[in-house]
Amino acid sequence: MSQEKSIWANPLTIKEQVQIIKKLLPFVKPYKWYFTGAITCIGLVSVINVLLPRIIQNFMNHHLNQAKTTWQTLIFFAAIYFGVTVLKAISQFLQQYLYGVGSDYIEIDLRHKLYVHLHSLGMRYFDQNASGSLLSRMTNDTQAIFQIWQLFMLILMGFFAMLTAFIAMFATNHKIAIIMLIFVPILLLAIMYYQRLSTRIYGSIREKLSQLNAKLAESINGIKVIQNFRQEMRMEKEFGVVNDSYRAARVRMIKTESLLLNPLIDLFYGLGIAIVLLLFGVEAQTTVMAAGTIYAFVSYLETFYNPINEIMMQLAPFQDGSVASVRVMNILADTEYAPQQAKDAQGKITAGKIEFKHVTFGYTKEQPILKDLSFTAYPGQTIALVGHTGSGKSSTINALMRFYEFQSGEILLDGQPIRTIPMSELRQKMGLVLQESFMFYGDITSNIRMFNETISDEEVRQAAEFVQANRFIEKLPGQYHEPVTENGATFSAGEKQLLNFARTIVTKPKILILDEATANIDTETETLIQAALAKMRRNRTTIAIAHRLSTIQDADLILVLDQGVVVEQGTHRQLMALQGQYYKLYKLQGKGSD
């Protein structure tokens, strides 16, 4: 929360915004022709905006004041004006279309690169960043960057419009046009003042909105505790304070926009017209002044002022896009990559022997979790890891699965350093079953084969039968094609875990890793799962983290971990006879005497 607060509370400097734009420019390059076409159309629209008043000026000065203006003349000027207006409409369409499509392509490319980059980062990055924040950056922030391109387009449109309008005014009456330039410095000062004020207020609004969302999330997620401890009044008061603070910030923005947008620009525009009419009136005392000329000059003056209001309205959202860009670029700049294998890695896993040799590992170098850990799991053996929370069980799995890089020591698979084995080989020959089973949208078959079309339907059925998942699958209306909704919401925890087993076993792994695979399973389903696990472990090297010690009594070796160190090891009977830490853990679970 504090990080998000600081980034919104302090508006970015011009230098920082320039740096952001430089980082975004590489994404523009592949679609430069879209923007080139859009800029060409912007220039064409600006020229047309000069031509239209000139057509009216010519008609008023040379034809409208004549007593007998022919129908041919009226139709000619009407047709010319309409034709140029159609050309303007086409140019505006192309301008908006090309710029919009180009901006969308950039957004899509940026989001895709962000997605790919996220999947290249290591687990440590996801430990340090909330999934909700990352999701917001992937969706809202990449979309908010459009505000930057929108302001660029408005600036280009404004530049072309003001330039061509001034040239036209100068060509119409160069003296009055030069006098009109006195307003430019005043307008620039107004824009700069509005930019500084609005971005500060807008940052405050975003900060208050972030606090409001946090308070809402706390209230909704903790509703049971709030009602149980009768905290409704306190939460209501706290929410009221944050809500009022947000409202006050919004009112400040409304006041600022009400004063400095339309009223201010309209004031300058009205003052400009008054001065133009006064100056033309002075000249009319000594020379004949055509009405069409005055009309054209006033039209150019309007064209000169129109873009300023739109640009100022976009300055505050531009801050939103700038901050969003910082958040996105921070992800792309992060190099907390997943552990890398050796460039010439060609090793193969054939038997499944696992050796930890003096392995030290920690999620930070300053705080090691595993300390000089050594053990060997021979092919076909089951090694169980037990211990209190924080003892290093999951850390052992994380190091073995290469989710994290270990700091020192060596992990060998079939006598080969783990870094010399390609990641694809590790993932294919090592099957991991987690405590929580995640299901994807699709059907049962696609979730078992994990969208790998090289796995046949028959292999899917054999895997389901192997772990006894077929018992409930074949009772479903769609059987193996039964739809799976979000995270398998229509299946029980036990059914999802059996599907998870089938998903793992269908790849025929040499090494099986069980991370508290039965922790959330009811007693009735556990019998099925234990039978499935017994079959899965056969002829495979298995590393099992055990929550229920009764599930690993038949393990070939049990390692009791405490603060990353093996304090006891042996079979179930040996450890029970020792009456040490394992014995105490077993008794705590109410198993009685052995």
Automatic annotation (TrEMBL):
This protein's record includes keyword Transmembrane: yes
Single GO MF annotation: ATP binding
Annotated keywords: ATP-binding, Membrane, Nucleotide-binding, Transmembrane, Transmembrane helix
Chain ranges of the ABC transmembrane type-1 domain: 37-320
SMART domains: AAA
Keyword Transmembrane among record annotations: yes
Cell location: Cell membrane
One Pfam family named in its UniProt record: ABC_tran
Membrane topology: Multi-pass membrane protein
Regions crossing the membrane: 33-52, 73-94, 148-170, 176-194, 259-282, 288-305
Superkingdom per UniProt: Bacteria
PROSITE patterns referenced in this protein's UniProt entry, alphabetically: ABC_TM1F, ABC_TRANSPORTER_1, ABC_TRANSPORTER_2
SUPFAM superfamilies to which the protein is assigned, alphabetical: ABC transporter transmembrane region, P-loop containing nucleoside triphosphate hydrolases
ABC transporter domain mapped to chain residues: 354-588
Identification of the protein by name: ABC transporter ATP-binding protein
Organism taxonomic ancestry: Bacteria, Bacillati, Bacillota, Bacilli, Lactobacillales
